[in-house]
Amino acid sequence: MKAYKIETYGKNSEKFREAEDEIWDRLEHDEDIEILNRWDRIFKSGVRKVKKVLKEMGIEADIEQVNVVKCVSCKVYVIEEDDYGTWVEDGYLCQACEEYERTEPPATVYFYNDDEYEEDMPYVVGHYINETEGKFWVSWVRCGGWRGYYEAYSDEYEKIHDDGILAYSEDAEELENFDEIMTKAMKKAGIRFARVFTRSSNVFFMGYELWVHKDDMDKFEKLKKLLNEAIEKYRNATRFTITALTGKDPSECTEEEKLWAIISGMILDL
Ligand SMILES: [Zn+2]
Domain range for residue 183? Predict the structure, then answer.
């Protein structure tokens, strides 16, 4: 979309900044100008009126025609040639929103034994960016207030293990061992599988899931025993519950804390 940008230099920039609120007020309310982005000084149309107001206020300015795009996520208009965002399925995603999706992705997927994807490379699944081409997608599950977590979905893959990483805990170390064994075995067996990490509102908790391609589920049958053994050996439900609820390793908890955590875990169905 074509729009216009107000450009000022030197002393005029200073004058503009000092009178900024008044300028926008007059343009918007008296002159009926649609301001698209105050920060970037972009407006939709009405060059003559804008020039008139600025002149009345003693500001010399250049008015440039620019191409603007509206971000699908934050709904802010940005100048297309100045913004390093990206085009996604739903429209344009501005640079700031893209950066956010990539640094705090709702889910990160790692594919194995699949020619279409590089092994051990993270593929981002966000609200607007989906590097798995729709093989996986996410939705936010609200647990009240701002709290919640992302849940992953897939039509092509089937979830075989659902777990969580409790940051800086013994339980997380044991999960690493579990992950190593399963990853190694499935890689060797030539099973197409994916490791999926999902974000939650709690910075100390991240979802960890193993998914197997539906066409390879028969191959996976042979590893079911190994999965059960690995769960038995490394995934202790009581330890997980105690750590999740107290934020401590069981060895650091008093008997009372442990008991409280186990009872709460039963009530919360952890
Ligand atoms: Zn944006």
Answer: 104-235
Q: What is the pLDDT of residue 124?
A: 96
One domain for residues 108 and 74: no
Question: What pLDDT is attached to residue 47?
Answer: 96
Q: How many domains does the chain have?
A: 2
40 alpha carbon – ligand 1 mean position (Å): 14
The number of beta carbons lying within 10 Å of the beta carbon of residue 100 is: 16
User: Tell me: the pLDDT tens digits for 224-241?
Assistant: 999 999 999 999 888 888
> What are the pLDDT digits (tens) for 86-107?
999 899 999 999 999 999 999 9
Supply 216's token pair.
């390879």
Q: How far is the CA of 92 from the centre of ligand 1 (A)?
A: 8
By the 10 Å C-beta count (0-12 exposed, 13-18 middle, 19+ buried), 235 is classed as middle
CA 253 – ligand 1 centroid, Å: 45
Nearest partner of 63 among 52, 76, 72, judged by Cα: 52
Shared domain check, 231 and 111: yes
* pLDDT tens by residue, 126-138: 999 999 999 999 9
Cα of 101 to ligand 1 centre, how many Å? Answer: 10
- Inform me whether the pLDDT recorded for 203 exceeds 90: no
Would 128 be classed as within a structural domain? yes
Contact 5, 40 (CB under 8 A): yes
Residues 151 and 190 in one domain: yes
For ligand 1, the distance from its centroid to the CA atom of residue 89, given in whole angstroms, is 14
| Distance between Cα 86 and ligand 1 center (Å) | 10
